[in-house]
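Customer escalation, tier 2.

The customer says the design service returned an amino acid string that "doesn't look like it belongs to this structure." They asked us to rerun it and document both sides in this ticket. The original structure tokens are below, unchanged.
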């Protein structure tokens, strides 16, 4: 629940300037930046409160590898946050492919794996430092994980990019236009793939009488 509250608050914080500025209102971008900010916070917290907050979540079967796994998940969250938040035009400058969509998929997989810790907490019924929400919360918490999975996929532009039944083409979220058609930067209408600069013209010449005889 604490991560959900943090996620919503960070996304709202990213969306409010867009709303009042009025020139652009991009919910996907706000959700992307909100998740990146939330993951930066929780990823860093995996190293700050590793033993008191996150280690008790791990099932006993992991033994001595539990703490390194806590650090690994924290590093994965920070890397995923960077992958979501970095502007697309920065990746080629670094000599790398655009990694926003792969980051979203990787985060979705990570959230799916982390449900193991959520289920373990629900079974054990033990609270951890800073997360004393009670037994009811521990039971509900695993069911929130699919929401985070869909959030990561949507924010990264992996899902929800087709509109009006048109398959997605080049999008701002991952290099493909979410409305479908060809890249609008090339003078092509995103809604239907029609060139705005050179629209089709109708042949208004009268028919050739010789051909009608």
């Amino acid at each position: 629940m604490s991560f959900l509250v943090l996620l919503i608050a960070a996304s709202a914080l990213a969306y409010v300037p867009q709303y009042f500025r009025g020139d652009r209102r991009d919910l996907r971008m706000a959700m992307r930046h909100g998740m990146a900010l939330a993951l930066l916070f929780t990823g860093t917290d995996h190293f700050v409160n590793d033993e008191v907050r996150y280690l008790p979540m791990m099932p006993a079967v992991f033994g001595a590898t539990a703490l390194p796994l806590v650090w690994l998940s924290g590093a994965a969250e920070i890397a995923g946050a960077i992958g979501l938040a970095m502007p697309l035009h920065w990746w080629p400058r670094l000599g790398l492919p655009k990694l926003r969509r792969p980051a979203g998929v990787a985060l979705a997989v990570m959230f799916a794996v982390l449900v193991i810790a959520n289920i373990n907490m629900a079974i054990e019924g033990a609270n951890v430092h800073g997360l004393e929400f009670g037994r009811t919360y521990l039971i509900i918490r695993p069911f929130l994980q699919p929401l985070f999975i869909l959030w990561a996929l949507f924010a990264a532009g992996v899902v929800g990019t087709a509109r009006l039944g048109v398959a997605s083409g080049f999008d701002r979220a991952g290099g493909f236009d979410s409305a479908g058609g060809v890249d609008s930067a090339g003078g092509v209408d995103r809604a239907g793939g029609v060139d705005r600069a050179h629209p089709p013209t109708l042949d208004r010449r009268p028919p050739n009488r010789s051909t009608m005889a």
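Tier 2 assessment: The sequence is consistent with the input. The radius of gyration is 24 Å. The first strand starts at residue 170 and ends at 171. Sent an explanation to the customer and offered a walkthrough call.
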